[in-house]
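*Target chain*
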Amino acid sequence: MTPAATKIELPGIEKFKSGKVREVYDLGDQYLFVASDRISAFDVVMPDGIPDKGSVLNMISKFWFDRTGDVVKNHMISTDVADFPAELQEHAELLKGRSMLVKKAELLPVECIVRGYLIGSGWKEYQKSGTIGGMPLRAGYEMAGKLDEPIFTPSTKADEGHDENISTEQMKEIVGEELGQKLVDISLKLYKTAADYALTKGIIIADTKFEFGMIGDELILIDEVLTPDSSRFWPADTYKPGSSPFSFDKQFVRDYLETLDWDKTPPGPVLPDEVIEKSREKYLEAYRLLTGEELSC
């Protein structure tokens, strides 16, 4: 097993932004996205990474960008380092599998969340008020129950702190009525297209978040898409409503952290090898099930 790549440095290349997992480099008329192997839980980045995680996220995004281009255009140009500008070729070994050359777009300041199942903050809201995203739901749902129809629940996109859930009407006030409705329609179509496909591969996509941007007057899908980090992936063969299903993402990390006397503030605790390896196996399994291929980078 190769060591986790938690620090990504490309000397001489201008870094535009550094996120919890991904580094973004400004190449003039394009961006380079590089997914590290960092893992965060409870909004804290852990000192240890999960080997191959960045490649899984990057290549799953590529898989979905390729499959959903007929629903909405996206920002992906290439994940093949041979297509990258000359100044990146000396970093080819580091970039292989975990990087994506993308078009520059003007980011829309909202996150487009689609929920197909009642879990997480949606379940908490439903228990409290019988609503999700402020919208009334019928009585009788169980935890992790499948919703009669997927529901669009947007949030603000905060640079600092936590995103805030908003209503669809509030989102339309931010981006405009026509564009707002387009975000709703495209997000729901993307989710349904992906969820139907994933189910044939043994994966339930319980919910997911999309981000969009504008290139001129054209709306495009950006960021990562339908990965285990931006979605809840559940194994279909063990799913049953009424309890919180196991998931293909940070489950081992979160479960381990919950056993510790840790106040969920930085710095995060060191992760045992067993937790790292089990997490890695789940990310790789998600990729294998979805694509039908082993990850090769």
User: Anything to note?
Assistant: The chain has two domains: 1-104, 107-238. The radius of gyration is 19 Å.
